[in-house]
Amino acid sequence: MNLTAFLLFAIASTITPGPNNIMILNSVLHYGVKRTLPFYLGVCFGFPLMLLAIGMGLNTLFKQYPVLHLILKVVGIVYLLYLAWLIATQKPSSTTGIQQKPMSVLGGMIFQWLNPKAWIIAIGAVTTYSSLDSGWGNIVLMAVMFLVVTAICLSLWLYLGHASRSFIHSNKAMRLINLSMGMLLAISVMPVIIDVLTLNH
């Protein structure tokens, strides 16, 4: 495996706006960094575990039964669009929005399995940067590298959310933020929707 190429792939796929980053940012804006840390840790550890699972068998299953991967993509798309709507319509002074409390570590880990972008990245990493004769050590190394890169890149989004909180002084501003976050989350799902629609034509 070309470590430099894989590292660049991991950074590019992790630091760019996507469901994980947007959810982290939204959580920090509403609950602060400290209360968002469990979700942050769930994402950091959840994705490498997902990559390990795919590298150790799920990818072969998807190749044999492509419809399973398609079903997971569709379920993930519907879930994320639902989250986008909840975020966009969340009331600043109410607990009736996306969450009554921040996501837990387990919630962050489970979120990876409902995140179509995470599926695409994990499958792309396994199929592009590993081979049948490379052994399990290669998959484990990839997971460890993603753990480190994800922790660093997501921490930048934590900081962005923390820095942005000081500029929010009214419910009107928070409603605008909620609408923007919801729209960004929906937009981040569009490439996956296009991919699914293309596969069906």
UniProtKB/TrEMBL annotation:
Keywords: Cell membrane, Membrane, Transmembrane, Transmembrane helix. The chain crosses the membrane at residues 38-58, 70-88, 139-161, 173-194. One of its GO terms (molecular function) is amino acid transmembrane transporter activity. It is a multi-pass membrane protein. Pfam families: LysE. One of its GO terms (cellular component) is plasma membrane. Its main location: membrane. It is found in: Cell membrane. The keyword Membrane applies. It comes from the Bacteria. GO terms for biological process: cysteine export across plasma membrane. This is Transporter, LysE family protein.
